[in-house]
Amino acid sequence: MPEDVPPADSAAAEDQLYTFLAAVAQVDAILLRHQQQYQFDPQSDFYPPSSELESATRAMPYWAGRSANWQSNIPQFDLPAESRMAQLVEQYQLSEFELAVLLLGCLNSFEPRYRQLFAQLPLQQNEGPSFGLVQALFCPGTFLRHAQRASLQADAPLQRDGLIELLPRRNAGEEQGYRTHEMVLDWLLGSESLPAGLQGMARWVEDQHNDRSHQAAVSQLAFHQSLTPLLDIRSEAGTDREAYIAELARHFNSQALWVSWLQLLNTGRDAPLLLRQLFNFTRLTRSLLVLDLPPPKAAGEGGDSYSALIEQLEQIVEQQVRDGLPLPICTLSAAQLSQLPFSRLSRHALEIGVPGLEERYNYLLSLLGGNTPQWDARALVQRIALPFDTMRSAVAESHALAMQRGKMWPQEEDFRAAFLRRAKQNFNALAQRVTPQRSWDDIIISPGLREQLDEVLCAVRQRERVLERGFARKVGKATGISALFYGDPGTGKSMVAEVMAGALGVDLIRVDLSSIINKYIGETEKNLARVFDLAVQDAGVLFFDEADALFGKRSETKDAKDRHANIEVAYLLQRLEHHPGLVILATNNRSHLDDAFTRRFSFITHFAYPNADLREQMWRAVWPPQIKVAKEVDFARLAQLALTGANIRNAALLASWLSAEKKTISLEHIERAIQRELSKMGRG
User: Fold this and answer.
1) Which positions fall inside the AAA+ ATPase domain (predicted)?
2) According to CATH, what is the number of the domain 357-423?
3) Cα distance between residue 188 and residue 191, in whole Å
4) Under CATH, which number does the domain 440-607 receive?
């Protein structure tokens, strides 16, 4: 049995087989009786005597003068109520004639000897039974035969719902052959394997028995489940969608089948057939069908043929809903997806939100067996907000890391390493990940600036705790924390951003504006959306350097290009306000930024030129312990020259290069290096 198939009870499967064999025996008896009687029996109402066939001058058909004949060979099936065959009859409202047709179409696949038997019978040109043979077997009476024709039409359940497949005609005028769909036969025999065509795009959602994180949210569906055929589930990035779907399936006392809508659409012409198979399979197994919709970019691609296919699939879904599906259809999409398929269906909207701090903390404690660790677990889940499924794997990895270090139980560093590894996203060319190497001890800033930066860190650390105390309702979704660093080049904006990321125990995600900004309309916005979507799942601090290139003032709308540029600015404002982590923007000139941005920043911090006292501290601290500076160097005098921290660092590095062959850096080396630095600045 494939790994993705839920285990079946062997005794129950055996009962299903016995029920199937008992029903087949009834059909088999009729088939064998017909084979023995077949020789164009003159008493047969279906096969007329040869003398009548040879008469070319009959005034009326051979049967027209006879009395109404409702003779029937349709089996009377005795099906246990709990059997799958009874479920099949109930689900599709099948008559006993239609069930007999289904069983007859199973025989070739179930037992190959029937192929030879069918080939010997009249009205047969295919290996499978024909519709003519079906009528001859079960409806020998003329009137009954025509009364049952409707059950074999394209709009009847057998064909419409794909329970049987039509075989191609090899010659014009030959009887239409058919076979029962392999999926139906497998299910009647007790299997729940996915049909071959669906295995690449559908999978079972594992029941997470110990996870009840979404139980409260799902329990609210009790009132709505009978009122709507479609559950429209929207999820934010970083949410544990699988746990939610598993809880939803448990709510319906079912199992969930997760299907990639994009992969289904990419099958092209086969998509309608595969969708019918999906509906059949979920109806047979009474499982919850979950269509995972593609992101907005992928959903809008494909042109007219793509739209036509979606419309065709919508019609199939609507027809299935009208037929009365046992469970609602679920569509699973990103929160920002605006256009959804099946627009004509009534729906109930659900949202899967990112779990809050207390939820994450309590879930971590449950993974640790309820034991409160000695280290600050609350701070860990506050800094690194993993969804529950990722948190489970991170806790498992922390145990493996501890064993590698020869420890029986993981420590704080093991959990932090495992959590950070799970949170890291791949930004490719859009941003570079910087692992902080410097701390507060490596920078020299004014007490006032340090106080402002501590306030930013305090806001980040206490954000969720304050929101959970009632502010979430007050501020809505605009709960993001953003900081603007502005000041002259070299005043330490980038270095401070790195230090702050280190203080939070996460990486700095430095956005590469050359990869973000695109001359084509709409592409810059798509790149930004990609960065923010990844950053939501990443624990890192998002850093935009020289942000005025991207967040500059909006221009007067003169053409389509200006209009799209302004749309990009508005989009950035929205993402800044909603981003759950810290976003830092740096610019050399605050006046270059759009006023709408400066009004909405949580913090605005000015990085001024350092005063003489700070510059003296920088000159003294810039030298590594291994570097010896001559005693005659007067750092207080050097500090009188207006330089930034970056200028001082560059001058110290150049002086060290110039004196590399000597044991001591002299004042001459430092003054020469300062002169070169001033020349670079145009002040030499």
Assistant:
1) 479-611
2) 1.10.8
3) 7
4) 3.40.50.300
